[in-house]
Structures
1.
Amino acid sequence: MALTAQAQKAYDGFREAYGDTENVRVFFAPGRVNLIGEHTDYNGGHVFPCAISFGIYAAVRKRTDRKLRFLSANYPQVGVAEGSLDELVPSSDAKWTNYPKGVIWAFERAGEILHRPEVGSLKLDTGFDISIYGDIPSGAGLSSSAAMEVLIGSILRELYGFSMLSNEDLAFIGQYSENEFNGMKCGIMDQFASAMGKEGNAIFLDTNTMVFEYAPLDMKGMKLMITNTKKEHQLVDSEYNLRRQQCAEAMAQLQRVCPDKKALGEFTIEEFEAVKSVITDPVVLRRAKHAVYENQRTIEAVAALKADDLVRFGQLMNESHVSLRDDYETSCTEADILAEEAWKLPGVLGSRITGGGFGGCTVSIVREETVPEFIEKIGAIYLEKVGHEAAFYELEISGGPKELQL
Ligand code: ADP
Ligand code: MG
């Protein structure tokens, strides 16, 4: 057997919790990092994420009755949590199990979610036992929740024969479950990036049309670094949902003068500047400005990457951070310190907060030969100013969900 240490942990957890590993299958789904295009996915804009080698692993086996048993090595205090296919409702104690349960619940609504009536309601005939281990830093904006949803979606597809579902379908079902079962009104980016990941490539996705293309990330002497503030994002659900509401409010006011537009991502900067005065609340105006400008920055950044202009790509990352800090107000002191200190280093082309915000990670483009200096200098300043250490990871781009061979 040649499982990685992480997959082995999920597998060993299965044996310890459920007694044996006969007929157990092992699956993986990746987290993601977003390079640019933040808070644009629920505004019909563009995003540019990639799947990362950090992810979630599961060892799983079908049962013969309708019981569900969940175990996660990341939540040892919860132990084995039991559920039933006849009781798919969010629970207030074993909270993490609301993610897998939500996906099972959403599968029953798959036809409706995917607007494909022929898919119908995908019901499991029997329950399963599952053991999970994830190495995505927790609450770090690297989308462990989407990884979990895509992981469970791909497991259900493989174990229960739902072969009519594509990876893209799994992304939509996962997003629906997070929106409706877990109350987090996230856009499609996270689940799409996890489900559609391709090694060596970032994904340039237009969330308005769902047209996407893979963009090879050939960094030419540069490294993409992820730096973790180790400040777990807080209030993220309520603040996130509030941003969504504010963008919807801006859009409703803009539609009075631009009835043909359906999303902030459809505005060019010129179009937006010409009509923005119809937005009455100054805070709502700043939120809308971020959504419009960030979308245009993302389009320009991908064009710069294609033209081998990483300097411009980096400048746009910096502008993205400033916009998230000042206009969208989803950054935090810790991420501001990481980004702003990184900008001072000559070996850094760009640095910005990534993910939903209020904590989590920054992503930076760093000249390869200056990576040790980057880690040392940023690490020391961060420790001094914040009082705890940051963590540094070199980005490794992963493929999408997969079954691991035992
Ligand atoms: P993120 O930015 O990582 O997606 P979220 O708050 O959206 O942060 O999702 C984190 C939640 O996902 C956790 O609180 C937990 O409920 C669930 N989760 C993530 N990884 C795991 C895991 N390995 N085991 C069990 N639950 C997990
Ligand atoms: Mg999440």
2.
Amino acid sequence: MTNLYASRITGTGSAFPKRRLTNLEIAQNIETSDEWIRERTGIVERRISEPGNPDELNSSLGLAAAKRALEMAGKRPEDIDQILYATASPDTIIPSTACWLQQKLGAKNAWALDMNAACSGFLYALTVADQFIKTGSSKTILVIGSEVLSTFVNWKDRGSCILFGDGAGAVIVERTTADSPSRIISSHLHSDGSFWELLHVPAGGSAMEVTAARHAEGLDKVHMKGKEIFKVAVKTLSDYAALALEVNHLKLSDLDWFIPHQANLRIIEAVAKRLDLPMEKVLLNIERFGNTSSATVPSMLDEAVRDGRIKSGQTVLMDVFGAGLTYGSVLVRW
Ligand code: UT7
């Protein structure tokens, strides 16, 4: 079936909490150093939401990012007919963070749901949005990747806590014609649940209730096998970047920008090397924000659109991996 419609990103936005947490501050509490964290991850500081601050809840960061994206797109909250909220750190289990956001934004004509594909969530949600637009059932969709993972991080575990930060990114996706030059070109997603153990939070779902003893053991916090994820991440990011190019008969030189999930600078450098992609084409915000999970790609996208690096007509490849494991890429012509 030939589609009549395609999707186009018409607005972007991002938001971060105020508080900067530097490597030096982390090193005051656990056995690590600024030098180690910089060298092994490329991270210098990250933003952390202030506990209890209503302006820095997951949905509040999502709200601020959404408002900026709407403004850029020239749309009103009432114009949104669907909200897809990618997050692994919801405000509450029930209701969804998408519904919290909906009422804060006043998007009264939308239906709203959360999607959890961990760090890959934004591209999963963007792909779902693309499908609803292509079938003609939606016209204007708000897609958000937002996290306050600081509440799920074990700040005593030096093998994981150094990586994560809080933040949000949002885009407005609108219907355009299938032959529009500016559109989402293709999407390539996959997941492999057999790797669940590499990154998980054991307690807090219906499988394991949080008790005082389990909390004391840190079972309600992120458990991560960093070295193992590193290897899978390099492979899947490289494979799914190559796949997007191959399917579209593009060469690396046809790419203007590459936006990978920002988990560790060394992962990104290894992927660029494997692909033979010059680092000048890679957009990075990891140094300032760390790994904001589902927010890394949309917040980086917003920064590069606003500062004029991403220009109309350019080809942008977004590429992610995350807990699940989940992974995939989305190719866009701006
Ligand atoms: O979206 C999130 C998905 N998660 C990821 O993408 C994580 C991917 N993995 C990573 O980013 C890296 O594996 C880490 C940054 C987490 C760890 O770096 P690494 O280079 O893989 O270190 P390692 O685990 O191989 O540990 C090397 C050494 C060990 O000491 P010994 O056994 O050699 O004495 C660790 O105990 O470094 C030690 N170490 C640290 N030292 C200082 C581990 N973490 C730290 C630390 N500070 N924060």
